[in-house]
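Quick review question:
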């Protein structure tokens, strides 16, 4: 590990005081969190006494565990270990806590947790043996379902115990109404706030009693409203771009135009001549962090002007130089070779059974950009053996460790202030922490020039879209057989794609790469899925719904082809193959029913063709079926008119958020029909929304979301709405035109229509 770039001043006897933020909301948050650190009670609610560390406990919040704080005024603060990036997590957590505490939702606020894996490790990741604090995999509500309710229930029990002692009554005779403790026999009533000091002296219960579903008041209610919306509407919500700290400089960086390119020479004279440009620094790059040349200025606009004025001679001798078609060609060749077996049962067929049919299909799907509305950014301040980071933080543990390694610090010397994020779709949960490390490297390079200021790295849209870390390009080769009775009897699926993660051995299976393919739910007696995971310099990363983004398109469009080969209706064909999968079948049946599958689709204007298609996917513990309706014009252009979705995500915490997430997921998935990241001799061709056309408001179809009632624990909802959208539309287009669609993007006009 390299030495820290700023050593602690021994004469001061400790770490330097952290820099305050200029934005008032940030100051308030930081002061609040600093105060909390001085009065922390029990870290977890499984043991120990919740003892206050102040001489004036009556004025302190009651903090029985790492997740719940109750103030002397009776208000409740929930600490979120998860990032709020628009998916509604803060509201879900507030709903769970408020229901168990029996307080109105408007008395609950949510604050982000600091990076502290000991307190805030994601419980769903931990169940897979991964001890990290982070947001992803649609795990927030599934992970919080028990954890947050138990934390709130422990607080409620302790407050009731304190009230019972104060009133000298049995705690079992007390009830709570909207945050007020009531003893009916004596008529006594008092708010939670009156008992916070006494509750802090109670033993944290070893076991808690949770509400039964029949007693829920907020969980499952369609009357709850999002807790983050008011601040986002009135402008008080703080994102990284809003943060300003004293002395802060903004860095805008010129990345190499080809991945892996290096700086040969920089002429910074014109950049330095721009008023407000303070420095130009070279930033070392490697296979994980692009690096380049950064311009430092007092604001983003000047920094960008300076960056654009740089004259850089790039050394591309070792840079990536392939085009997308070169990659497809390599992958097609691999698809013809035996792959590593990921799943196998029975013996797959290589020809059609007697009297049956055999389909061999090759599918191609491009690299995809995450393209969140807020491009990547990060504020880093290193001083006195300590680093502070302000960030829409999705991957706390990884970013903390990577920043520490870059700066020669220990992870505990890196403090992360989690802010809102304007979308992410997985990009901020980068396992290589590329943009956070880049910000740290800029700070190091600035220090070498005598600049010790806080540095805010700001990527422009083009920087964000051309910086790598894409959903990988894929080629799928699938061979299926239908017997003479119309039964699907064989399915052989080979997936060729870069891995989403670093595989320990060349013959290792990447379960994320083959998810949605290796675990398709249909009853197929002879089944085999194989994988090729070639390595390329293009960095890849999970994108919203991960492997399902490409597997669903292949599996569900080919399922329609198999149904046509069998001479059967595509919905009925699927239904018959799900006899042992009641929750899959339940979602499929509900979607078909609500879409009016059994009735003819209304005709469109003269000269147009209309079609209806269906798709099903199980992802992140959730069952989703969608029916899409399309209209195809004479020139091959098309519109998606309606999407009907049925979703089974277990117990629903906030129905409105479930619907919103599914609607957003459908919009995200529909963008796959028209978007692609393409390489031309190593250059990324797309740079902004003009040539990477994410779905616009006028392209959003009418969407209906129907929730399957369930008593099962909650499962994921942020991602499962994405995978079925594109195949449902492709199946609808096939129904309208008679053509098959095996490559994305389709574009604005159907080439084979």
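Suggested answer, residue by residue:
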């Amino acid at each position: 590990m390299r030495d820290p770039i700023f050593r602690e001043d021994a004469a001061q006897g400790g770490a330097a005081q952290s820099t305050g933020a200029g934005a008032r909301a940030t100051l308030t948050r930081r002061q609040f969190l600093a105060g909390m650190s001085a009065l922390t009670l029990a870290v977890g609610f499984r043991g120990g006494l919740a003892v206050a560390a102040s001489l004036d406990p009556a004025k302190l919040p009651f903090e029985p565990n790492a997740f719940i704080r109750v103030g002397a005024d009776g208000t409740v603060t929930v600490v979120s270990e998860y990032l709020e990036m628009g998916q509604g997590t803060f509201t879900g957590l507030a709903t769970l806590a408020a229901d168990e505490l029996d307080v109105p939702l408007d008395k609950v606020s949510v604050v982000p947790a600091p990076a502290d894996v000991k307190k805030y490790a994601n419980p769903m990741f931990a169940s897979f043996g991964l001890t990290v604090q982070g947001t992803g995999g649609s795990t927030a509500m599934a992970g919080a379902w028990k954890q947050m309710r138990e934390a709130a229930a422990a607080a409620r029990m302790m407050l009731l115990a304190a009230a019972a002692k104060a009133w000298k009554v049995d705690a079992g005779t007390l009830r709570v109404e909207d945050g007020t403790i009531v003893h009916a026999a004596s008529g006594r009533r008092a708010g939670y706030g009156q008992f916070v000091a006494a509750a802090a002296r109670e033993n944290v219960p070893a076991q808690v009693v949770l509400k039964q579903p029949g007693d829920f008041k907020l969980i499952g209610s369609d009357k709850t409203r999002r807790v983050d919306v008011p601040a986002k509407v009135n402008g008080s919500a703080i994102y990284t771009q809003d943060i300003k700290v004293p002395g802060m400089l903004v860095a805008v960086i010129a990345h190499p135009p080809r991945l892996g390119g290096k700086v040969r020479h920089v002429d910074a004279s014109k950049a330095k001549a721009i008023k407000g440009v303070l420095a130009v620094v070279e930033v070392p790059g490697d296979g994980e962090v692009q690096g380049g040349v950064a311009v430092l200025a007092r604001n983003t606009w000047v920094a960008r002007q300076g960056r654009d004025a740089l004259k850089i001679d790039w050394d591309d001798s070792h840079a990536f130089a392939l085009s997308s078609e070169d990659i497809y060609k390599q992958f097609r060749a691999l698809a013809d070779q035996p792959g590593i077996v990921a799943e196998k049962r029975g013996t797959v067929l290589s020809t059609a059974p007697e009297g049956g049919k055999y389909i061999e299909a090759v599918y191609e799907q491009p690299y995809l950009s995450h393209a969140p509305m807020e491009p990547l950014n990060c504020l880093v301040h290193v001083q006195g053996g300590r680093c502070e980071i302000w960030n829409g933080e999705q991957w706390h543990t990884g970013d903390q460790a990577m920043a520490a390694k870059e700066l020669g610090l220990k992870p505990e010397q890196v403090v992360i202030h989690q802010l809102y994020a304007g979308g992410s779709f997985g990009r901020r949960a980068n396992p290589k922490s590329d943009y956070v490390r880049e910000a740290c490297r800029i700070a190091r390079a600035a220090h070498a020039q005598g600049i010790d200021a806080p540095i805010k790295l700001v990527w422009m849209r083009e920087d964000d879209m051309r910086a790598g870390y894409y959903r990988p390009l894929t080629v799928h080769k699938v061979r299926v057989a239908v017997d003479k009775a119309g039964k699907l009897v064989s399915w052989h699926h080979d997936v060729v794609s870069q891995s989403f993660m670093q595989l320990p051995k060349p013959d290792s299976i990447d379960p994320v790469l083959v998810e949605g393919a290796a675990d398709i739910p249909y009853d197929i007696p002879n089944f085999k899925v194989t994988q090729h995971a070639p390595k390329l310099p293009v960095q890849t990363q999970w994108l919203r719904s991960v492997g399902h983004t490409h597997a669903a398109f292949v599996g569900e469009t080919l399922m329609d082809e198999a149904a046509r080969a069998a001479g059967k209706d595509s919905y009925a064909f699927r239904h018959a193959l799900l006899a042992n999968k009641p929750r899959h079948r339940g979602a499929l049946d509900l979607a078909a029913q609500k879409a009016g599958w059994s009735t003819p689709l209304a005709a469109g204007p003269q000269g147009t063709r209309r079609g209806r298609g269906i798709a099903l996917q199980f992802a992140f513990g959730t069952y989703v079926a969608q029916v899409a309706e399309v209209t195809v014009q004479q020139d091959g252009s098309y519109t998606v008119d309606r999407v009907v979705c049925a979703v089974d995500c277990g117990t629903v915490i906030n129905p409105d958020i479930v619907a919103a997430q599914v609607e957003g997921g459908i919009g995200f998935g529909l963008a796959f029909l028209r978007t692609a990241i393409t390489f031309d001799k190593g250059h990324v061709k797309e740079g902004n929304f003009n040539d990477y056309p994410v779905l616009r408001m006028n392209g959003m179809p009418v969407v209906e979301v129907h929730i399957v009632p369930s008593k099962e624990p909650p499962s994921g909802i942020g991602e499962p709405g994405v995978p079925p959208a594109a195949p449902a539309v492709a199946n609808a287009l096939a129904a309208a035109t008679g053509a098959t669609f095996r490559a994305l993007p389709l574009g604005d006009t159907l080439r084979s229509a």
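Why it works: Residues 489 and 525 are 6 Å apart (CA to CA). Residues 140-167 form the longest helix (28 residues).
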